[in-house]
Amino acid sequence: MTSTNTEGGGEGKALFAQVQFYIVQTDNLRVDNAAALAKLLEENGAQEIPRSGDERIPMEEVTHIISTTIDFPDYDAANDALKSVVKPDWVHASITKGRLANPRQYSPDPRLFFSGLIVCCADLPSGDSDAIIGGVLAMGGLYSSAVSKMVTHIVALTMDSEKCQTALAKNLKCKIVLPHWFDDCLKLGKRIEEGPYCLPDPEILRKRPEDRITEISRSDLEGASSPKPNRLPTPSKSPADNHRQITVFKNKKLLLSNDLELGSRLLETIEDLIVSGGGSVTGSVHRADIFICHYRESLDYRIASRAGKDVGNLAWLYHLITHNKWTSPMRRLLHYPVARDGLPGFNRFRISLSNYNGEARVYLENLAKAAGGEFTKTMKEDNTHLITAHMVSEKCDAAKEWNIHMVNHLWLEESYAKWQIQTVSNSRYTHFPTRTNLGEVVGQTPIDRQSVERVFFPQSSDTDPSMEGDYVQKPMAVRDQNVVSTRAPNASSPAPPKPSRSKDVPFRSSQSVGPTPKASKENRRHTDGAFRTPAPSRFGGEGKENETPSTTGSRSAKDKAVAKLHDLAPDIALFEKERKRVGGVTHGRDRKSSEEKPLDGNRKRSASKEDDTDTGADEETRVAKRAKKAKGLLPATIRLALSGYKRWVGMARKEGDEKSRLREMGILCVADFASCTHLASPRLLRTVKFICALAHAPVVLSTKFVDDCLSENKLLDPEDYLLEDTEGEKKMNFKLSDALARAQKNKGKLLRGYSIYCTEFVHGGFDTYKSIVETNGGKCLLYRARAGTGSMLRAGLDEDSDASESSQPEYVYLISGKTPEEGEAVAEIPANG
């Protein structure tokens, strides 16, 4: 079968005339199937490239690598060389269409979790249909406007639609699902089972939220649930293969580190398995292809990692021996060496699990310990996090009462993978589909190589004294003249310094850099009054869990700390109130009975005092309560945000006093620009607070309003102080009144549906643009130049004519500066990206 058309068009050319392919044989693509696929490609003009002598794929010759998985040794090299890695379906789809199909739609990359799906929408609102189509295309799937035998999923609200009836009449093997399934998959960033969403009787509509959810058992996590297994596994073999030979180490040289702490007999057994499988054991990290160690700290670890060698731990080595199949040590989190001291700042977390069972539970327990946290089997009030697969359990009920963070396992996995504590405010970590046990997607998060490289083996951090010459460790034992059995001691030379993490990790070491200075009398006098600092909360501040106060910070940092304590005060007061309540906070057992009991005189006074400090209500409610008891305290009619105000710079005490005076007038100064009703600024500014506040259309005033209110000690009319900055409007080429009118119309949704990327070195910093974009309803992502990233800057559209007629491209924006680094990053984007 030969085609006469190519992607570029042209008569007389074979379909795959410019394709030079290599087929990776896996369990799902055996030798006979690979041979048939190669024959089909060659009949249509393609050329097969054989593996080179060093068992590597010749990247300079191939154009396409055909594989059912990305789990093969040369995948990273192929990605760096911008080679197309496609599934076998790409070949058949290209022949069916008569032209080369889009490789991205047939990528085996698990991050494109809708890959392989062909979706058809039936009788959905146009907005919902467009959102689903865009999400499917962006995550590697395809869209079809008509029902055909190629369609895998039909999205519908009922079975009454014409497309659903057509699928039933033709007995098509496709699933009819509610649109909720796509919504939950996109929120989690993982593909979950469709079962609870399938029509005609979807479980999410039939069952109650409190009904029991089926437990999930995961056999694929065996061998990947602990970074340090306690025994050597038995290699698996088929019944017909009584003497199975291990071939995964063929032509490979392995280096075993001393930090594995292997006994002599176990070490000898492992070396026998390696040698009998065609591999060898070496004592030089430069000659080794694979380095096995337990910790991410030795000099050999950094040398091997920088050289791009495979670096894994003992669990990964055992996995290779057991399955006799290569897998990347970065594919599973606990197959990669661990950090001796854990993730900085994670040691203050006490973590408990709920609704995970079997290997998934063991895996998450060990992952929490590897990250440096404290794992507890039972949950108490001093726990900081509950990791749960769904919301139906007694622990979940107690966590709600005790204000303990409830997150899914993705928070733990991605904190460890990116080596940075993720904020629990991210909706991905607090999303729990109604009838899904998230244990089914445990263990799918890989190690983030760029994050690990940045922290543990940056290319410019230190100079390795062993980079010149052939650095060979002192051998432990010699097996025979042909195989040198050695292990790489960590201390053959003076212990190398640990890589500095102060610039890369949001937590510094818990060790003090010097003695804490003794507080002066003046400082003690200031803290004896209203600004007494409460005990540090385990919940952290707004949006960030990982900020540690500095003892040597500037006045600006201290001012920010005071503002943060002001924001935390309501939570602290509420917690203290709950502690005093009869029966405590345990599931609220005695709450009802205690509230119904008559109060005596002393208890009435106590209750009155607690009501006055009740911070569970909003600010206006609390102010209204106090207004009845304290004369002159008015309800807050103005929630004022300040930008560019210099009156209180370096004068924290004056700031506190004058803010209290403003509060007595009915003006509440807020740090949250999203909740402000008025914004005061000396002129038009381009600060983050000013721009973000504009999205909510506040009344913009001159800071003279604050000055005059304080000088006259009364609330003045804000309308007399509206900001007028003609020069600023002319300079910035816009009118403030028009901007506020548009903001009032947009209601904070100006950028809704937009994806905006920012380069890493953009002027002002990525966080600045992220705040502005997210305040206006958009999604802001960090763009780093790396192979494969450019092709993901826009939703991949299938080149099928049916799809192109019914869907429009999703435009994605990139913000960058003019520095050389950003120029290189932008240059990585393909012309069609």
TrEMBL record:
Q: Tell me which domain of life the UniProt entry assigns to the organism this sequence originates from.
A: Eukaryota
- Biased composition (Basic and acidic residues) is annotated at 519-529, 579-610
- Listed Pfam families: PTCB-BRCT, RTT107_BRCT_5
Q: What Gene Ontology cellular-component terms does the record carry?
A: Cul8-RING ubiquitin ligase complex; nucleus
Q: Which InterPro entries match?
A: BRCT_dom (IPR001357), BRCT_dom_sf (IPR036420), CellCycle_DNARepair_Reg (IPR053036)
Residue ranges of domain BRCT in the record: 11-108, 109-199, 346-429, 679-723
What SMART domains does the annotation carry?
BRCT
Q: What SUPFAM superfamilies would the database entry show? A: BRCT domain
Any single biological process term in GO: double-strand break repair
Q: Where is this region: Disordered?
A: 216-243, 485-561, 579-628
Query: This protein is called what?
Result: BRCT domain-containing protein
List the taxonomic lineage: Eukaryota, Fungi, Dikarya, Ascomycota, Pezizomycotina
